[in-house]
Amino acid sequence: TQFDLKDLLLEVIDQLEHKASKRKVDLVFQYDEKEDYITSADKQKIYRVCQNLIFNAVKYNNNQGKVKVSLKTSKHNLHVEIKDNGQGIPPEDLKRIFERFYRVEKSRNKKEGGTGLGLAIVKHILEGHKSKISVSSTVGKGSIFSFSLPLVKQVLPEGKEKQDVN
Ligand code: ATP
Ligand code: MG
User: Fold this and answer.
1) How far away, in angstroms, is 35 Cα from ligand 2 center?
2) Which residue ranges does the record assign to the Histidine kinase domain (predicted)?
3) Is the entire prediction scored with pTM above 0.90?
4) Contact at 8 Å (CB) between 61 and 19?
5) pLDDT value at position 19?
6) Beta carbon of 83 within 6 Å of any ligand 1 atom
7) pLDDT per 10-residue tile (average), the chain, 166 residues
8) Mutation test of ligand 1: which of 56, 59, 123 has the most ligand atoms closer than 8 Å to its C-beta?
9) What confidence score (pLDDT) does residue 44 get?
10) Ligand 1 and 97: CB distance under 6 A
11) Among protein residues, the one whose CA lies closest to atom 17 of ligand 1
12) What ipTM was reported for this prediction?
């Protein structure tokens, strides 16, 4: 189905807002009001992807931490980036976080609940959409998770060609 990825992200963020404020984490969303972010994908599944990635960024953060979600377009794709300035993930763990039930020792110690299934599901869902999840992380600095989905160009009514005004 086709839907606006910006609206979906707004919903996810709205739903996670109180979890973020409880942990004193600042959750921000950056996108361009003038853009359309229509994609074609399984909406429920992409909701789960966004929910897990954003909740992880909130959970594995610090007090006064910050999570920045940004949505951008390129010619044929939408790009979602979830950036946190939390604890980061050591290189030896980074290779394994997408395995089922894998959790970084430090996270277990943090007493944050979780089964270690979230990222395995994220990876599986994105693969089913011919997409993939990317991650880069620095211990003590934070992590960036990102993925892309196809951009669906909206067909404008006859005679109403979209023009560049510049
Ligand atoms: P679940 O998502 O099933 O409730 P979980 O969050 O522990 O549990 P995953 O989402 O699969 O499981 O994440 C796996 C592990 O990767 C986490 O336990 C945590 O150690 C690490 N991790 C994931 N996201 C981040 C992040 N943004 N910053 C630091 N560590 C992270
Ligand atoms: Mg998780």
Assistant:
1) 30
2) 1-153
3) yes
4) no
5) 96
6) no
7) 98 97 97 96 98 97 94 97 96 96 77 90 98 97 98 78 58
8) 56
9) 98
10) yes
11) 103
12) 0.99
For residue 155, the model assigns a pLDDT of 77
Closest CA to ligand 1's atom 25: 56
Protein residue with least CA distance to atom 18, ligand 1: 103
Rounded distance between C-alpha atoms, residue 60 and residue 111, angstroms? 10
Check if the beta carbon of residue 25 is closer than 8 Å to that of residue 17. Answer: no
Residue 140 has which token pair?
A: 């003590």
User: Concatenated DSSP letters for 13-77?
Assistant: HHHHHHHHHHTT-EEEEE--TT---EEES-HHHHHHHHHHHHHHHHHTS-TT-EEEEEEEE-SSE
Query: How far is residue 96's CA from residue 40's CA, in Å, rounded to a whole number?
Result: 30
Phi and psi at residue 93, to the nearest 5°: -85, -35
Place of tokens 């979209």: 162
Q: Output the pLDDT for position 107.
A: 64
* Ligand 1 atom, smallest distance to 145 CA: 27
Rounded Cα gap, residues 83 and 145, in angstroms: 7
What's the CA-to-centroid distance between 96 and ligand 2, angstroms? 14
